[in-house]
Amino acid sequence: MQSADALIEKLGIPITNRGLVQRALTHRSYVNENKDALADNERLEFLGDAALDFVTAAWLYRHFPEMDEGQLTLIRSSLVRTEQLAAFAEEIDLGAALRLGHGEEMNGGRQRPALLCATFEALVGALYLSEGYPAVEEFMQPRIQAAVEKILEDESLFDARSLLQIWAQSELGETPAYHTAGASGPDHERTFEVVVEVGDQIRATGVGGSKQAAAQRAAAAALASINWPTLSAE
Fold first, then answer.
1. Which of 136, 154, 172 is the last residue of a domain?
2. What are residue 12's phi and psi, to 5 degrees?
3. Is residue 231 part of a domain?
4. Is residue 91 part of a domain?
């Protein structure tokens, strides 16, 4: 397992409060199994989530002055979705630095997208508390730029749930409703089925390894059923 100090040194992040980074890397399963661990990373995750929303919105606002609110919202949603934040975490090998309980470790927690996403958010929260917003901005700007370039090259990366919501509200005055229709498999390898409905006109189903992934696939299936094109950055 990589230490917090090793992670900080590798990233070159000027964090003076190393204890915050240690907390950001601590999953609740580790706290449950190690009574000397005082806190998990969930409060930092909450803070980092908000900081990421703001820094991505500010970056997009400055770099795309001609884009309307809907397009900016779509790109921001794609930047902060679970899969993208997990990809950021993988780029810095964050999984190697996680502090996990034995059960979570054995069940592949270091590679799980939802866990990597949450830990990346917690790391950003720690950076914000330790060094302030400018440090978060400096850390995220090159990552946002590289991710946005990929998003604009491949519109399939746009968040399907956001696309469906924009369509449903603009065309029908409705908000898509999602519910979990079923779940199967062991706890460490669950498969979820989610159904999305838009009023009484659209109903679609998606399956995935998390409720969020299944909901995204349900939204994508709903969009495919109406042949609604994705929005471009033009």
1. 154
2. 70, 25
3. no
4. yes
Query: What is the pLDDT at residue 228?
Result: 64
* Residues 77 and 28 grouped into a single domain: yes
Q: Are residues 144 and 176 in the same domain?
A: no
Residues 33 and 126 in one domain: yes
Which structure tokens are listed for 100? Answer: 């996990």
Residue found under tokens 């409703």: 177
Name the domain boundary from 134, 154, 174.
154
Q: CA quadruple 163, 166, 172, 173: dihedral positive or negative?
A: positive
Compute CA 154 distance to the chain's CA centroid, rounded to the nearest angstrom.
Answer: 18
Q: Identify whether the C-beta of residue 157 lies closer than 8 Å to the C-beta of residue 78.
A: yes
Provide the β-strand partners of residue 99.
26
- Structural tokens at position 53: 């929303």
Instruction: Give CA separation, 180 vs 26, 143, 175, 187, 229, in Å.
Output: 29, 33, 17, 16, 26
Which residues, given as ranges, of the chain have pLDDT below 50? Answer: 230-234
Q: Round to whole Å and give the CA distance between 162 and 160.
A: 5
The answer to whether residue 218 sits within a structural domain is yes
pLDDT in tens, 128-157: 999 999 999 999 999 999 999 888 776 555
Among all residues, which ones are annotated catalytic?
A: 49, 121
Output the domain CATH number for residue 38. 1.10.1520.10
- Residue 195 is part of which domain span? 160-226
For residue 206, what are its two tokens?
A: 């998606």
Q: What would the pLDDT profile of 43-65 be if each residue is shown by its tens digit?
A: 999 999 999 999 999 999 999 88
Q: Which residues are CB-contacts of 217 (< 8 A; sequence separation ≥ 6)?
A: 160, 194, 206, 207, 208
